[in-house]
Amino acid sequence: MREEEIKNLIEEAMKYRLRAYSPYSHYKVGAALLTDTGKIYGGCNIENASYGVTNCAERTAFFKAVSEKEKDFTAIAIVGGPEEVAEHSLSDYAYPCGICRQVMMEFCRQDFQIIVARETKDYKIFTLSELLPMGFGGLS
Ligand code: THU
Q1: Distance (Å, rounded) from C-alpha 106 to C-alpha 90?
Q2: What are the pocket residues of ligand 1 if the criterion is a CB atom closer than 6 Å to any ligand atom?
Q3: Which residues of the chain have pLDDT under 50?
Q4: Of 35, 94, 107, 123, which is most buried with the most CB atoms under 10 A?
Q5: Is the pTM of this model over 0.90?
Q6: Catalytic residue among 4, 58, 68, 84, which?
Q7: Which three-class secondary structure state does DSSP give residue 28?
Q8: Over 36-60, what HEC string results?
């Protein structure tokens, strides 16, 4: 991916992070999912008083995209941090949880790019096969 595309995807994820509904953890996560045709679907974490019902930002983005008939994905950018931390000053990378990695496994190729970022110029990129080696199921 070009530097400009990565920066744009991270900025979208930052924007969606501010939409998180996280009154229980006070931790906000944003994700921006890029399709092979260049569309971006954003997502945030959405919590629930029954904690286990919570949906992560990454899955929100995937479920929005898949429900719009998208099936081919290039990359996802993920940003996360405590709610008191403002945009563009995140101190840690937010790695996707195991359930979200399994959802990626269902819909993505092994070379799908997972970008974890603290800011637009501070990020790391991993492939799905790096973050979920020998995963179950998925695209053949
Ligand atoms: N969370 C995400 O949105 N994505 C992840 O990959 C890890 C965790 C959310 C779930 C919960 O709302 C909050 O972060 C704290 O766990």
Answers
A1: 29
A2: 22, 25, 27, 29, 45, 47, 54, 56-58, 96-97, 100
A3: none
A4: 94
A5: yes
A6: 58
A7: strand
A8: CCCCEEEEECECCCCHHHCECHHHH
